[in-house]
Amino acid sequence: MSCDTPRIERLLAAFEHRKVDRVPNFEILIEDRHTSRLLGKTVGHTLGSAKGASEDEYVSPPMDPGDYIEICKMIGQDAIGFDALWAPLKMMGSDGKPHIITDGSIHTWEQLDRVIPHSKELDIEPRRAYLREYMEACKGTDIGTTIMTAAPVMTPYQFIVGFEEFMMKLHTDRDFIEKIISMCMDYYMDIVEMACEEGVSFIYIADDIGQKGGLLMGPEMTRKWAIPCYRKIVEKCSEYGVPVAMHSCGNAVEIIPDLIDIGTVMYNPVEPTSGADIYDVFRKYGDKIALSGNIDIAGVLAFGTPEEVEKDIIQHIEALGGRGSYILTSSHSVTNDIPFENFMAMIAAGHRHGAYPLSKGRPKRGDCHAQGRLDDLLRHAVEKEQEHNIFTPVTRYGVCSGCGARSVTYFLPTEEKLCEHCYKRAGWQLIHEGSNQGWHRTTISADSET
Q: Where in the chain is the domain with CATH 3.20.20.210?
């Protein structure tokens, strides 16, 4: 069997501390520069929440599942997934229509009383349709599916209440926080039950409760507000035999014993820049929970050479892979800032050195697509030319200077930072491929669009 052949059994085995053919590699988010390089066409990010929380983010999955599957076959990734990450609580707008709250504006009980909870028809059933589409596309491939969901703490502090107000209300108005989290959890429990009913391979909780140096809310508050939410999700999933993984940015290793206690099977990504030491975590908990991540996107992946990336992968696999419970993953996601050759070096090194039984000094694998791409890149072959055939604009999540909304903003040639709607209204057109690629000023504005 080729090292590139995706097998959901490989990933599930790691959750259960079992060895199969090799250490799995799994990224929930690969950004568009890399997906475009892999497929030779513009296909977008693998995860919709990479675009932030917006009306558009709830409309459809980020990528055609057929394209996603082709990427998995190229890099040997065992599952595809999309997200239902931000709870779609709504407020009636001036146009008389409900709009998803993303501006952190709910600060009073009067405002909270006007918040519209999620709808199964509008918010759950479309996700069911997407999951069925993904699962249908996976038939015959041995590729699994996941939904990244459940941010019951992060959604309130980032999009509903706002960070400072949320943290203050943890001390001044706990009933208010309890109500917000409860409304979010109603949505997440419906999503989780739907996904389990449809036969999803695993559920991926993603709730950023960590920061550099430790937990955002401290251990006491985290155990009061976050852990009970995760417990409910794990208990629901256990009714269907569906495993639950956990992602938190920052350093949340202090609550790993709590995650183990409630039955979580994997913790990601043990960010090295947060002060978390994955080797220490492995010594303490590696026999009880699988670990994923730690390949530093602020270090070797972004700034190292392919040789340095390979050396780092070898170190991780030798120290963490022996029990079968390590999953090769970046320390957050494969961002556009990472050189493509370093991404390929990570995958190739994992396939080469992560084969069981682990052994030093293995030769390059002839069946590894990533190794072939890396060799071409290092020989300055056709990939260098292809890089110039796909235009990827510079984007950052932030405040649009046109409408003031928080969304993905595009850096225009005029040095403005506008969201997709505003740059179109301003008469800009974005062309990704071909001889006319780049930014162009047009005479047609979005106001004339139907």
A: 8-390
pLDDT of 81-138, one tens digit each? Answer: 999 999 999 999 999 999 999 999 999 999 999 999 999 999 999 999 999 999 999 9
Strand 406-411 and strand 395-399: the pairing is antiparallel
Fold of 8-390: TIM Barrel (3.20.20)
Residue 220's identity, in one-letter code, is E
Read off the pLDDT of residues 342-351 as tens digits, 9 standing for 90 and up: 999 999 999 9
pTM: 0.87
Residue whose C-alpha is closest to residue 146's, from 31, 56, 29, 239: 29
